[in-house]
Write a structure and sequence with these properties.
transport; ATPase_V1-cplx_csu; single chain; alpha+beta; ion transport
């Protein structure tokens, strides 16, 4: 049995088309919402992995070996130093506080503006060191190494990448199938419009034939001229006015150029990768 039987009443056909398109629309919104949520969360995390060393996440940069951990007295800080200040940092970092561990600095990452250095000092002079560092244009990152949190952040990114990949394939296949279904429903809607408009224009009993034409762009004007000449007798007044310029009436727009003595609806295929 045909999906849209020609012997079905118009109301049944329109209800069927409307129901199908409503279901496709609802499914699309649900699937797109799920996919876009995953994509958005992933992009949000990925944005944190780029940018300045002052703001970006350090989860993919730092290692456990870069820090003094589990010490009651010592702590390792991360300091962003401008590239022009590398030499100054090496000369002054030990004197920014009286309790900095000598030769404890190490460059662990760089970007276009500067580098990320480690430095180890006693916990009780953290505030003093930060203030002195700021005075010398060295910016201390508010970062404390927590292996579980860093691993959790990495795992979250990997999970979102896997979820996005898992969602993408089925979503793409669903789109291809349901685009076809939606396009078929759209063309059938056009066919219903042709039928209804023809009945309204030419009356009953039904005595007309519907066709689909796909002319070359260069031959469009010639095709219109041929059709207008062929069906001129169906509406002499409209055909006679085809070449007239519409009058400008305040509050009313009349465009005779879009009216023909035959029923015509355009199916716009410009957005499709379509070859005749």
């Amino acid at each position: 049995m045909a999906k849209y039987p020609v012997k079905q009443p118009l109301q049944n056909l329109t209800d069927s088309l409307s129901k199908q398109m409503s279901q496709i629309d609802a499914d699309l919104k649900s699937r797109a919402h799920t996919y876009n949520n995953i994509k958005g969360n992933l992009q949000s995390l990925e944005r944190k992995t780029v940018g300045s060393l002052l703001t970006r996440t350090l989860a993919d940069i730092v290692n456990k070996e870069d820090f003094v951990l589990n010490s009651e007295y010592l702590i390792t800080l991360l300091v962003v130093v401008p590239k022009t200040g590398y030499a100054a940092w090496q000369k002054t970092y030990e004197s920014l506080s009286t309790m900095v561990v000598p030769r404890s600095t190490k460059l662990i990452a760089e970007d276009t503006d500067g580098g990320l250095f480690t430095v180890t000092l006693f916990r009780k002079v953290i505030d003093e060191f930060k203030a002195k560092a700021r005075e010398n244009k060295f910016m201390v990152r508010e970062f404390f190494f927590n292996e579980k949190e860093l691993q959790s952040e990495k795992d979250e990114i990997m999970k979102l990448i896997a979820d996005k990949k898992q969602q993408y394939g089925p979503l793409l296949r669903w789109l291809k199938v349901n685009f076809s279904e939606a396009f078929i429903a759209w063309v059938h809607t056009k066919a219903l419009r042709v039928f209804v408009e023809s009945v309204l224009r030419y009356g009953l009993p039904v005595n007309f034939h519907a066709v689909i034409l796909h002319p070359n762009k260069k031959s469009m004007k010639r095709l219109r001229d041929v059709l207008n000449a062929l069906f001129r007798h169906l509406d002499e007044a409209a055909a006679a006015n085809m070449k007239d310029v519409g009058m400008d009436i305040p509050g009313l727009q009349l465009n005779n150029q879009d009216y023909y003595p035959y029923v015509c609806f355009k199916i716009d295929l410009n957005s499709l990768d379509f070859e005749p």
